[in-house]
Amino acid sequence: MSKFQATLQIGKNGLTDGIIENIKTCFKTRENVKICLLKSAEHDREKVREIAEKIQQELGKKFTYRIIGFTIFLKKWRKVKR
């Protein structure tokens, strides 16, 4: 595992408070977080986008996301994105 990126997986329980807390702790030591959605979670592109938006709302404006397939890449910026 790279020191710049942490990898998490979302399974059949979906997006829980524990996963949000885990993402927050990953950003204390990492610059990027990669979240893979397993088949048991959701395999609909719109649901993936909804999950990414919920994560961004929980983390704040300093964070942006990018979706490639069923993987969400989160990045923390030093300055707030407008």
List descriptors:
82 residues, alpha+beta, Translation Initiation Factor IF3, 4-stranded mixed β-sheet, 4 strands
Protein described:
The protein has 82 residues and is an alpha+beta fold. A 4-stranded mixed β-sheet has the order 1-2-4-3, covered by helices on one side. The longest helix has 15 residues, at 45-59. The model has no long low-confidence stretch (mean pLDDT 87). It has helices at 17-29, 45-59; strands at 5-10, 32-37, 63-68, 71-76. The chain has one domain: 2-Layer Sandwich (Translation Initiation Factor IF3).
CATH topology: Translation Initiation Factor IF3
* Rg measurement, Å: 12 Å
Run of helices and strands? EHEHEE
CATH class membership: Alpha Beta
Distance between the termini: 31 Å
For the largest beta sheet, what order do the strands appear in spatially? Answer: 1-2-4-3
Question: How many beta-strand segments?
Answer: 4
**What structural class do helix, strand and pairing data support?**
alpha+beta
Sketch the major β-sheet: 4 strands, mixed
Q: Stretches where pLDDT falls below 50 for ≥5 residues?
A: none
Strand content: 25-35%
CATH superfamily: YhbY-like
Number of helices: 2
The average pLDDT value, as a whole number, equals: 87
Overall domain count: 1
Question: What is the approximate shape?
Answer: globular
Q: What's the helical proportion of residues?
A: 25-40%
- The CATH architecture can be named as 2-Layer Sandwich
